[in-house]
């Protein structure tokens, strides 16, 4: 069984973060290991507090897994501050070089409810130091706007931004279309060689979308671990998330933005 390591924050409501990663990776048929970066206080109504873990504790968690497990892929989620960012980058560099380790990074910056999940000074550091280690970075459109400082109001804008990000950082970028005003949700994959792949599905009206980005990035990492190419993994993960949204539309878990049901 392929092992996928999730490095992310903890969500006690289990709709996002480490808990959702665990469920997603398991549902796809891989074994999930974890390294927690922050403890959040949240439920379906929003995030009320965040406590980052010390960077050395995050690094020790990652090292403990690699010293014992044959990790096939890594998914990274919430990186709350520079201390944790530095710990992750420094710890993963050696493993990335030694094992050509696939790394999928979901740059979680702001929660659905509007709470900041990353210190602003982290962004530049991660762009300069983490992106070059990543196989894939998966920003939503607001996150892509933060990374590019460009307005993303049209397909032309999105294509330009995605191609430029892939060219600058030498990693693939998946610009997620869930925040667009279209009736279809289109995830656009931009490769450093200039190739573009697009994955589209009808938007489903649902209040239960908590953890969508975590689910997608964990699914991509899992499919890569199982041997899929990057475009194949993204396509399978897009379908996995669409099916989860469909399955979750009418459940009544929580009083706010409910979780995706992945199993």
Q: SSE layout and pairings?
A:
Elements: E1 3-10, H1 17-28, E2 31-43, E3 46-52, H2 55-66, E4 71-76, H3 82-99, E5 103-105, H4 122-129, E6 136-137, H5 141-148, H6 155-169, E7 172-175, E8 184-190, E9 196-202, H7 212-225, H8 230-248
Parallel strand pairs: 1-2, 1-4, 4-5, 5-6, 6-7
Antiparallel strand pairs: 2-3, 7-8, 8-9
Helix pairs in contact: 1-7, 2-3, 3-4, 5-6, 7-8
Q: Describe it for me?
A:
The chain is globular, with a radius of gyration of 17 Å. The model has no long low-confidence stretch (mean pLDDT 93). It has helices at residues 17-28, 55-66, 82-99, 122-129, 141-148, 155-169, 212-225, 230-248; strands at 3-10, 31-43, 46-52, 71-76, 103-105, 136-137, 172-175, 184-190, 196-202. α1 (17-28) packs across α7 (212-225) and α7 (212-225) packs across α8 (230-248). The two termini are 18 Å apart. The chain is built from eight helices and nine strands. By secondary structure, it is α/β, with parallel strands linked by helices. β1 (3-10), α1 and β2 (31-43) form a beta-alpha-beta unit. The chain has a nine-stranded mixed beta sheet. The longest helix is centred in the last third of the chain and has 19 residues, at 230-248. Helices cover 40% and strands 22% of the residues.
